[in-house]
Every structure is written in structure tokens, then in C-alpha cells.
Design brief:
With 380 residues, the chain is α/β, with parallel strands linked by helices. The protein is built from 13 helices and 15 strands. The chain has 3 domains: 64 residues, Orthogonal Bundle (Arc Repressor Mutant, subunit A), CATH 1.10.10; 130 residues, 2-Layer Sandwich (Nucleotidyltransferase, domain 5); 161 residues, ATPase, nucleotide binding domain (Nucleotidyltransferase, domain 5). Helices cover 41% and strands 22% of the residues. Helix 7 crosses helix 13 and helix 9 runs antiparallel to helix 11. Bound molecules: zinc ion.
Length: 380
Amino acid sequence: MRQLPLTSPASHAVFRRILSHGPTGRVDIARATGLSQAAVTKAVTPLLDAGFVVAGEAAAQAVGRPISPLSVAAGRAHVIGVKVTSDHTYGVLTGLDARIVARAERALSSSNVTEVVAAVTAVVDELRDSSPTPVEGVGVAVSGDVDRIGGVVRDSPLLRWHDIALADLIENATGLAAEVENDVRALTVTEQMFGAGRNATSFALVTIGAGIGCGLSFGETILTGAHGVSGELGHIPLADDDTLCSCGRTGCVEAVASTDAVLSRIRAGHDDENLTSADAFRLAHAEDPIARSAFERAGEVIGSALATLANLFGPELIVISGENVTEYGLYERCVRDAFARHAFGAAQNCEIVLRPHVFDDWARGAATCVIESIARGRST
Ligand SMILES: [Zn+2]
């Protein structure tokens, strides 16, 4: 049902390279994919003929070279990504370059599966109406243990879902090819294809927010774990054993380092349950000792967790992301000190970069999964 003429492994490799690195010349594509220039031309010709890839003047100017570089015609097809939380569905329509073209959302009164599917369908219908081209597919991102290949949400504590065949339900309701993915892994796919991981052979994406998530990318593969679990950085027991985690265990990184954990500690210290995140940031900037200590403790545990990550997996790059990482300066020194103390040998060379994100990026991650599937030639 997809419109793109991607029929061979070579055409997938070429299309993906142009998607991630375009505008790009045929020589560069051949070098990056290991194909001959003739094979690149053969692979790209049907895409050029169908208008999904363009060559020429505009693209040449963008790279400043008198060649005929190739770009993906981002507006030639569109996809939809939806992020489901416990009380909302947020959707975005994007072109093939994952740039957001339109947004839609619906509130949820519960995380009942039927209600969520209806809300996702309403979001999809609204976005389809504003799409300039037929929509190629819909991706849905949720937190928890998700089997992307099977299209099943195996366990989402936040939504209280177990073994929900969500991709089938969305496909039946919308008539679009659908896929589901864990939200942090979906964000990792975005960074891998379009972001900080575009030029890295391996990287880890660490999200700091209400929870602590981690996606691990090696080449074009995201580690999913043989049992569906991988990169659970938030539940490594590196903290003191005195704080209960949302997972029911104690001593987890998340139990002291999530934004909720930091806020709880400051609230308890000030005996004020009404303190907001903004209050917490303000107190910490004003050198309030309780707030400073809560952020520093979080920073130390995060730094130890990042060192553990670097020691175990050796990624080229660690990308720290989250809606509040603009306040990362409150504990950056503690993170870096703890990282330097615990990173083993050359693991200290692992670069740590910040990448603040906005809430739409979760839905955009789901859209990117569909784009990635198109580039891979998956039927859904
Ligand atoms: Zn935990």
C-alpha cells in the first residue's frame, strides 16, 4: 500500500542515506553504502522518477558544490506519529524529513484501550484532513515494554496495559499501516536518523524527566533486549537503599534522580507539598541548601549511571535529553565529576551532549519510526 518504489536492499540503503544526510552526492552515497555509483544510480532512478527524491540546482546550492546532489522530497509523502500518555494523546503530521507540519490532540478520561484507540483515531483523522498527500502510516509511542515487530504493548505500568495488540487495533480503526514502539526507543530512532546520532556509529540517548529512560543505538540497530528490556538505566541500583522507586524496588537511579524524585525531596525538606518544579528550580538557583542538595544528589547518581553505561556499552556519544534539561546546569558539575570518577580508562572519552526536547518530540519519534520502516522496506 505504500507509494514509495523501494524494491531492493540497495534502494533502501540509498533512500535512508539521502534521508539522513541529504542533500548528498552520488559519490558520497556510494562511499557510505558500499555500493557502486552505477548501483546507486539504478537504485535512485525509480525514486527520482516518482518524485520522492529530487536532484539538481536547489540541492546543489545547499551543499555549495557544482554537482547534482540528491535530496528527499520531504513533502511528497506524510506520516503521523502519536504519543499516548495516561491522560492525553498528542499527534503530529510530518513530511518524510520528520519535520512537523500539523498537530492535533485529544484528552483522555482514562487509559481504557477502547477510549485510547478512539482518541488516537480522532487525532489521526484530523491530521489526515490537513495532510497535503495521502498518509503512509501511523506510529504510536507509549511508555513500557513494547514489541515493535509484533505490534504489541506487552506491559505499560503507566497505562496499566498488558499484552495489547495495539498496532492491529489502530490499523483496523484508521485503515492505515500502524506500528507501536516504546517512547524512548522512538526518540532514539529520531536521533539516529535525523539528530545527534546521525554521524555516530553508536550512541546512547538518556532521557531525564518524570522517569529516566535510555535508548541504545549501534549502527542502524536499536537494542531491544532479548526479553524486551534493555537500557533500563533508571532502575540500576546505584542510589542509597532508602528511597522507594516507582517500580516498587529501592535504590534505583530513578528514585533519586527523576524530576519527580528531586521535587519530592525538596517538598519533604521544606515540609511543603505544594512546591512546584518552577519553585524547586528557583530555590536551587537561590542556593537553598535543601534544593541544592537534592539536585546534587541526583547529579551524582546520574553521573554514576552514565559511567556505568559507558563502561558496559562503550558508546561513542551519550545524548542527554528531556524537557527540563535546560536546567541541567544545576547538577552538571556533579554529573561530570561522578562520571569522571567512575568511567573506566578510555571510557572517559565518551562525549556527553545535551539535547533539550519539547513534548512534541515524543510524537515526532513515533512518526520517525514509520519513516524508518519505509526506509527499511517493512510493510508496516
Ligand atoms: Zn526502579
